[in-house]
Write a structure and sequence with these properties.
This protein has 107 residues and is mainly α. It is 48% helix and 7% strand. The chain is built from 4 helices and 2 strands. Strands 1-2 form a two-stranded parallel ribbon. α1 crosses α3. The chain starts with 20 loop residues before the first helix and ends with a helix.
Amino acid sequence: WKTRTLDQIVVSTGGGIVMDAENQVFIKKNGYAVWLDAGAETILKRLQADGSTADFRPALTSAGVLAETRDMLEVRRPLYERTAHLRIETDTLTPWMIVTLIERSLF
């Protein structure tokens, strides 16, 4: 981890980072983890609106992308809960509102 030698930085991880127990411990111990939670529908809407990811997120099974996203969240949510210091439900929030909530939690 290159971040071990850095101070006062923001690290944006992929959602799957919590799948490894060692990563969970490292994050919990060495930082302040903010879980930006969202429902499956919101996640898909955001991915489809992002031109850099929209074409790269096809369904991996016949269940479809929405069902796969729900299944993934069911597996990951307990891991996020165990790892995060702060959880923010972002479904109805703007980026500015999210930043404000994070700032308030830090100060």
